[in-house]
């Protein structure tokens, strides 16, 4: 297709493979994994679809120019030389987001300033007037990325980060980022083919993302808007078609998604957020202390949760993590239990051997997503049964 162009989807560390799989499933071509990003090709409709549907992307940017750059003045000249009228008019607003990874260029704010000056001066010199900067809600978001001496200029098609899905109005003290929650669920192999439990559900993010995966609901269907909707070439009819066709691909879900939290305020917040996402038909939230529960459902149970870290919440780590292990051992046979923690020494208190450990980051905290397989009956009994047959 002649109207395909290159795009870059940014993501969290460790999610590159998940994101490239999502992109291929959506129909992207030339998918290439980088570090915290995946590049791909598609047309304008695909750019809309990527923003709407990708669960593990933080931003979708569209590169428009790249060049080698020696110093700040060289950057100014090369930005000035570009034809900005293709993307921006004097009556519109813009903002610059700069990322630098270079010995030569060390200050991203200064790079933003230099880029802004070059664009403003170019318009002033050719039109006698200039577009304004609007950091909060610009018509055009420009992304500058400098790595060593290579500069890439891109347009940000997403706007604010894609983890802001639009359903979460109520949060607790330590809410999990929606992209992180979705990625953890996908890493855990959650596919909607069993019952699901988040036993420490907080404001319900893991539950909501689990339901959207199970029903194949586009991740950002509840979002207020995307940056590309303000672009001069925005095709509203095409975007409507993309939304309609994505919603036609949703599927029914025949199991239960359940959340527990012992704080009444958390239960209320979770219920509000789930209602905002229009998923109350699929998710039940109950006020329960996980350590006083046992598995209620027949068949296999998939559990995924984000226990308190001891970073922002004050807990006795040794007792807390050993209680997780005891509760799983005694009350949850036939369960694949996954949770994330940044407190790696605390894992030894669980008293169970994890069958998987995956390195991920929760914000700046290096963490592990761990899996504990709880068998029906004991492992020993299972082994004896197999040898007797």
From TrEMBL:
Pfam families on file: RlmL_1st, THUMP, UPF0020
Family matches, as CDD domains: THUMP_AdoMetMT
The protein's name in its UniProt record: Putative N6-adenine-specific DNA methylase
Organism in which the protein naturally occurs: Maribacter spongiicola
Matches recorded under InterPro entries: RlmKL-like_Mtase, RlmL_1st, SAM-dependent_MTases_sf, THUMP_dom
Lineage: Bacteria, Pseudomonadati, Bacteroidota, Flavobacteriia, Flavobacteriales
SMART domains associated with the record: THUMP
Residue span(s) of domain THUMP: 46-157
Molecular function per GO: RNA binding; rRNA (guanine-N2-)-methyltransferase activity; rRNA (guanine-N7-)-methyltransferase activity
Keyword line: Methyltransferase, RNA-binding, Transferase
């Amino acid at each position: 297709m002649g109207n395909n162009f290159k795009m870059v989807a940014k993501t969290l560390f460790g999610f590159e493979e998940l994101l490239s799989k999502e992109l291929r499933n959506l129909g992207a071509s030339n998918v290439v994994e980088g570090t915290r990003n995946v590049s791909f090709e598609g047309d304008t409709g695909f750019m809309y679809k990527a923003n709407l549907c990708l669960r593990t992307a933080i931003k979708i940017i569209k590169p428009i120019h790249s060049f080698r750059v020696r110093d700040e003045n060289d950057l100014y000249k090369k930005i000035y030389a570009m034809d900005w009228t293709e993307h921006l008019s004097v009556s519109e607003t813009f903002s610059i987001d700069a990322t630098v990874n270079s010995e030569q260029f060390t200050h991203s704010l200064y790079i933003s300033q230099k880029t802004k000056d070059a664009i403003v001066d170019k318009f002033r010199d050719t039109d006698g007037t200039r577009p304004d900067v609007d950091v909060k809600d610009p018509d055009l978001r420009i992304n500058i990325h400098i790595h060593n001496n290579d500069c890439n200029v891109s347009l940000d098609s997403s706007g604010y980060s894609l983890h802001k899905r639009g359903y979460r109005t109520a949060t607790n003290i330590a809410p999990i980022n929606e992209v992180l929650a979705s990625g953890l669920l996908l890493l855990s192999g959650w596919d909607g083919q069993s019952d699901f439990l988040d036993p420490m559900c907080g404001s319900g993010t893991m539950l909501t993302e689990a339901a959207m995966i199970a029903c194949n609901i586009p991740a950002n269907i509840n979002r207020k808007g995307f940056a590309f909707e303000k672009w001069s070439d925005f095709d509203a009819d095409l975007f409507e078609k993309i939304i309609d066709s994505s919603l036609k691909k949703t599927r029914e879900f025949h199991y239960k998604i359940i959340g527990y939290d012992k704080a009444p305020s958390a239960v209320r917040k979770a219920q509000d957020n789930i209602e905002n996402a229009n998923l109350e038909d699929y998710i039940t939230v109950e006020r329960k202390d996980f350590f006083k529960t046992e598995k209620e459902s027949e068949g296999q149970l998939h559990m995924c949760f984000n226990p308190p870290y001891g970073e922002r919440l004050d807990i006795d780590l040794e007792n807390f993590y050993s209680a997780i292990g005891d509760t799983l051992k005694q009350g949850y046979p036939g369960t694949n239990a996954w949770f994330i923690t940044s407190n790696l020494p605390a894992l030894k208190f669980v008293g169970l051997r994890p069958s998987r450990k995956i390195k991920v980051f929760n914000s700046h905290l290096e963490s592990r997503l761990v899996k504990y397989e709880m068998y029906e009956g004991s492992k020993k009994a299972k082994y004896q049964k197999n040898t007797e047959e």
